[in-house]
C-alpha cells in the first residue's frame, strides 16, 4: 500500500509551540518546533499545517478536535494526550511515545506510526484509511467499533489489543505478534494472517489441533 507522505516545505522557520496563543485561531503553519514543552495544557480546535515537531512534550495535554494536516512528530512524547474528535491527514509519528493517547472518534487518512510505543491508546469509534503501523507496540490498545480501510500492522506487538465490533476484512497482521486479541469471530473473516496466527486463533476458539 502506498501512503501519501506529509507535504512539508523545504524551508521552515523555527517557532516555539506556545506561539499559538498569539494567533487568533490557535494555529501554527509552515514552521519547525524543537524541544518545546507543552504539558498539562488545555486547548480546543488547534490547527497545525505544514509543521515538523522534534523532541517536543505534550504529556497530559487536551487537544480536543485538533486539525493536523501535513505534520511530522519526531521523537515526541504525547503520553496521555487527548486528541478526541480530531482530523489527522498526511501525518507521521516517528519514534514517539504515545502511551494512553485518546484518539477516539477521530478520522485518520494517510497516517504512518512507526518505531513508537502506542500501548493502552484509544481509537474507539474512529475511521482509519491508508494507515500504516510499523514496528510499534500496541499492547492493550483499543480499536472498538472502528472502520478500517487499507490499514497495515507491520511487525507490531498487538498483545491484548481490542478489535471488538471492528471488521478486520482485508487487514494484514501477518508480520505482527500477539498472545491474545479481543476480536469477534465474525470480524476475523477476510483478515490476512500467518499460518502460525491461524493456529493461535483456532486455540482461542477452543479447537484442539492434532496431527
Automatic annotation (TrEMBL):
Signal peptide (from-to): none
InterPro entries: 5peptide_repeat, PA_immunity-related
Coiled coil stretches, renumbered: none
Protein name (record): Uncharacterized protein YjbI with pentapeptide repeats
Protein source organism: Anoxybacillus andreesenii
One matching Pfam family: Pentapeptide
